[in-house]
């Protein structure tokens, strides 16, 4: 059974893992390249000679270049004197496409616009590589490839360590390829299991199942409640004419832009100390504004506040320190997986892990090619599956199918791939049998 899982099945499924590792290496190797390519947009030309303009005026500068149907979804104030401020918006015809306007906080000049994505705010280069790694640019259904890779990676890692443990005392000659495959596999076993587990938590179908299990055990990641009590009367502002607002001729939803300055002041008073902040305004009187820390480097700072800007009262609060342990582990795992938790050390971890995983698979295929061929492997797989099924008792078959069913519920793509492989093997066995009968006199 171990031989079946680790050798025969891996020959057909390892290419998906290799592609995931390769695209992951590309993603992990490009943060510095991205910063260099977009340097003129991300950073101010020279250090300021005076304090930066208030955030409200920076947002107003961005308003002047917004498309007529755009809605501001978030604002990220410049985290340092060298950075630009990001004003992110979406348009009605492209609700899933986030565009950032980069504003020089010292001159209010617009330094450019780029599509951005995710908590880390990746730019077009890494956005392309992220989608390549996640879905091979095939959309939502393309995510099945990365989920397939993550599902089988953990199984191949565990069966590999079991094969090594059971054969460790056997004295038999080892080929050069087998030696390096075993050595590399043992060395990066924790990495393989980590990539598999974190990849599954982020996947489409298995990820949803894992989230549901966490929900059953009351281990959800907390989220801000932005709903306001509709019975609360909104106070009028006697100084409204002093606030920067959109003029009537624009079609953008009107925001009290001074609220951007106020919410930062409130956040600092309430203990949010991270330099990297994200503000999400609300155009709905029944929803609060939110401000959150977005420092995902260790020790991470992701506390958040919901604020009723009409009264400037805190309506909800999130503190990472009070998160359930599963939510903390998930957050740390995701940040480690995308290479931001420990900076360049984390990036190096990803690169080394991905390259060694590719080398591990390459050595396995070299070892396999010296002794087998694709058709021969299929025939061997067919014999192994048939032998396991026929030699098992009814009780063993029941246990086996029960285990497969339970794993399949958690990892549906894994189960589908197993059924497809068995179907292909069955078709080949049928064709072989049909051909052999034709040859018989």
Automatic annotation (TrEMBL):
Transmembrane segments: 7-29, 149-167, 179-197, 341-365, 398-431
The UniProt record lists the keyword Membrane: yes
Alphabetical keyword list: Membrane, Transmembrane, Transmembrane helix
Family annotation (InterPro entries): PepSY-ass_TM (IPR005625)
Pfam families: PepSY_TM
Protein name per UniProt: Peptidase
Lineage: Bacteria, Pseudomonadati, Pseudomonadota, Gammaproteobacteria, Moraxellales
């Amino acid at each position: 059974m171990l031989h079946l899982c680790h050798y025969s099945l891996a020959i057909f499924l390892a290419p998906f893992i290799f592609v995931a590792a390769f695209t992951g290496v590309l993603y992990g190797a490009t943060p510095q390249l991205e910063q260099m390519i977009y340097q003129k947009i991300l950073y101010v030309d020279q250090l300021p000679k005076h304090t930066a303009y208030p955030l409200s005026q920076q947002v107003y500068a961005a308003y002047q270049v917004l498309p007529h149907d755009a809605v501001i979804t978030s604002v990220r104030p410049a985290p340092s004197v060298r950075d630009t401020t990001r004003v992110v918006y979406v348009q009605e015809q492209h609700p899933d496409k986030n565009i950032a306007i980069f504003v020089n906080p010292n001159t209010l000049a617009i330094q450019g616009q780029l599509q951005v994505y995710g908590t880390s705010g990746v730019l077009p280069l890494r956005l392309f590589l992220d989608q390549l790694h996640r879905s091979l640019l095939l959309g939502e259904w393309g995510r099945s490839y990365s989920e397939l890779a993550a599902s089988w990676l953990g199984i191949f890692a565990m069966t590999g360590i079991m094969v090594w443990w059971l054969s460790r005392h056997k004295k038999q000659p080892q080929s050069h390829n087998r030696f390096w495959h075993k050595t590399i596999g043992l060395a990066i076993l924790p990495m393989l299991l980590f990539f598999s587990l974190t990849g599954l938590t982020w996947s489409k179908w298995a990820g949803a199942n894992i989230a549901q299990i966490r929900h059953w055990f009351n281990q959800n990641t907390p989220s801000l409640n932005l709903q306001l009590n509709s019975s609360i009367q909104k106070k009028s502002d006697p100084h409204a004419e002093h606030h920067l607002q959109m003029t009537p001729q624009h079609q953008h939803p009107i925001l009290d832009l001074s609220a951007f300055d106020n919410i930062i002041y409130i956040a600092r008073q309430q203990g949010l100390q991270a330099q990297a902040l994200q503000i999400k305004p609300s155009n709905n009187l029944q929803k609060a504004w939110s401000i959150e820390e977005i420092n995902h480097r260790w020790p991470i700072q992701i506390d958040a506040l919901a604020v009723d800007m009409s009264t400037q009262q805190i309506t909800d609060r999130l503190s990472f320190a009070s998160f359930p342990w599963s939510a903390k582990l998930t957050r740390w795992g995701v940040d480690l997986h995308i290479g931001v938790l420990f900076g360049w050390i984390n990036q190096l971890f990803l690169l080394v892990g991905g390259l060694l995983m590719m080398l591990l698979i390459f050595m396995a295929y070299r070892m396999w090619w010296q002794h087998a061929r694709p058709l021969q492997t299929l025939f061997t797989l067919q014999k192994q599956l048939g032998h396991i099924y026929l030699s098992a008792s009814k009780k063993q078959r029941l246990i086996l199918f029960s285990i497969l069913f339970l794993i399949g519920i958690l990892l549906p793509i894994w189960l589908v791939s197993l059924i497809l492989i068995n179907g292909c093997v069955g078709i080949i066995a049928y064709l072989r049998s049909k051909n052999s009968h034709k040859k018989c006199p």
